[in-house]
Each structure stands twice: as structure tokens, then as C-alpha cells.
Amino acid sequence: MSTGQRPLRLGLRENAGQFALLVVVNALVGGMVGQQQAVLPLLASEVFGLTGYTFIFTYVAAFGITKAAANYVAGTWSDRFGRKPVLLLGWLLAIPVPLLLMWAPSWGWVIVANVLLGLNQGLTWSTTVVMKIDLVGARQRGLAMGLNEAAGYGAVAVSSLLAGSLAEQYGLRPAPFLLGLGYTVIALALSSLLVRETREHARLEVAGHGPEDPRSNRTIAADVSWREPALASASQAGLVNNLNFGLSWGLFPLLFATADLDIGQIGLLIALYPAVWGAGQLVTGGLSDRVGRKHMITVGMAVQAGALVMIALSGGFAGWAVGAIVLGLGTALVYPTLLAVIGDVAHPSWRGRAVGVYRVWRDLGYAAGAVVGGVVADAFDLTAAVWTAAAISLVSALVVAVRMYETHPRDARTPPTG
User: Which residues cross the membrane (predicted)?
Assistant: First the structure.
């Protein structure tokens, strides 16, 4: 089996060129979120005059729901049609996003932009995850996911800083969203001209993985959602993790603004969380290949709960900065490790679909964070919403501790077949 003249081989070193290219593409995916993270809540209140927290958070909910749906489509289509066509479709859908954000005459158009952004993120991020898992094989799966997620969320942080700086110097529109336009053009060029299909690598792994496992889409969805203990535990932890991210996206800029911080300071605080999250995954992804998955996820969710308590108790820049850093550390422990769990348990023949279903649940967390944050903040206040997220994170940690088994290939027991 070969592509061109060279036989296919699995491994990070053996596929370093394509792997590095996919890391760059995923950084551009993350940049599309970062360009708006610090700016849109301020745009909602200062340009469109929105005041109700639940209404302001509609754009986060719209993004999360559409991204979750796109994740499922990405997993199914990447198994059926190949990875690269799905990646290209995702970037084509990104083209209108920065243009709509620049010139939207009403908040409804901002929501439309976030629907398209959710489709872009679900198709492109899911596909780069599956492609990297295809390339590296089982031995370095955690490291591969750490590098992937570090690139994506590191770019969220850098773009958030850049967008905040541009907004402070040139206004909330259109300057910050020129970043997204540039990201889209570069990503389309790289994905169409240089990225290669990786589905044959998955088939190569199948050849050494035993007989085919022809599960139906319904069976896979049930296993990942509730039936298979490790997969289902990963799905709920992923949902809660992104509930926290969705809450931070919609609520933190408004919370930080209560201390009369300027846009640059708010942008810095917003960037700290994904910056630590992104950089930390350079260590935590590979660490999970050595020490296992379960305990890292349990500790990571508990650390997130503690970080949210710090943020709720603080009332100024220093305390919020420490809380954001700790929140990033907790997320770094969890994020690549959860994806590695899915890769550990799922057979290569249905891995794309398993990743898609997991990411459906994980990214519904954006919508859950928007709803929980908006409803609780409207009923009580912004701080009460942060306390609520802390409690939910602690419960999630307990679920992982009780239900998940260790999935790392060196230590795992044989998972149920469903």
C-alpha cells in the first residue's frame, strides 16, 4: 500500500511533515474563534445595546449547537468519503464569517456568522483530529492530541490578544475580524494544495488490529453517549469542560468589565486561559501516554472546579488572572487525554464516527455554558453563574473517578464490545 512511491507507515516521526502541516492548519482553526472571543460580548453591549445575559449568550449557543452537529457529520463523512474533502468544505464555509462580523447590521447577523463558524469548526477541527490519529498509530496518540490541541488553543489565545489590541486601537469593527479573513485564505491554500488524505493510514492500522468491527452508527452513538463506560465518561467530561469554556467566552468579558478594566486588560485575561491550556497540552498529551488517562482526567476536572471558585471569589485583575491560569492547567490535563481515550477504545474502522459523536457531546457544552451562564446570571448575578459551573465540574470529576476505567493500551483491560 503506498501513496506515490513511498509505502505508508504509522508514527509521528514517520509522518512528521504532514503532521506538522496539520498542526498549522489547526492553529488557523483556533484563530477563527480567538478573533471574536474578547470582542463579541463588548460588541453586543456597546454597539447593539443588548443587556440581558441570556440574550447576549445566544451567539455562544448558536456556535455550540452547530459545531456539535458538524462534528457528527465530519466523523461520518470522513469515514465514508475521506478526510480531506471534509476539511476543505469546512474552510469554504468559513469565508463569510469575518465579513458578516465586520458589517453585521443587527445582532441576528452575528448569530448567523456564529452558525457558520460552528460548522467551520466542527468540520475542520474534527477532521484534523482524525487525520493526526490516523498518522501516528496507537503508541503516541496522547502526544499527537496534545500537539493538535495546543496549536488550536494557543492560536485562540494569540488571536484573542491580537483582536483585543486591534479593537483598543481601531475600534470593535472591522479591524479585529481582518484576522479571520487572513486565516481563511491561508488555510484554504494549505488544505487544498499540501494536505494529503490519511484514510489509508487508518486502513493500515486496521490490518494490524484484528478483524473488522462493522458497528452501525446507532450502536456507535449509544456506546459513546452512555453505554461504554470509558467512552461515555469521556463524553460527559468533555461536555462539562466546554461548558466552562462556553461560560468563559460569554460571561468572563462582562464579569471583568465590572472592575472597570480596559479592553486590553480584558483581552489579556481572556487570553490567559486558552494560552495556558494550549501550552500545557504540549506536556499533558505525552504524559498521558506514560501515566495513563483516567487519573489525569479526574484531577483535571477537579482543578477546573477549584479555578472557578478562585474566579468567583476574586474581584480584580490579579485574582482573575490566577484563576484563569489554574483553569487553563486543569483543562490542559483533560483535553488531549479525552481524545486519546476515544482513540484507545474505538476500532480504526469506526474511529472517525466515534470522534464525531464524542465531539457532539463535548461541543454541546458551549450551548450548555451559554444557557446555564445566561439563566443563572439573569436570575442572580454573574458570580453565581461561575459558582454553578464550579459545582458541575466537581460532579464531573466524581463521575470519571467512579465509572471510567484506564484505557491506555499498556494498562487497559479489554473494553466491552457493546
Answer: 16-33, 53-74, 86-104, 110-131, 143-163, 175-195, 239-257, 263-284, 296-314, 320-343, 364-380, 386-405
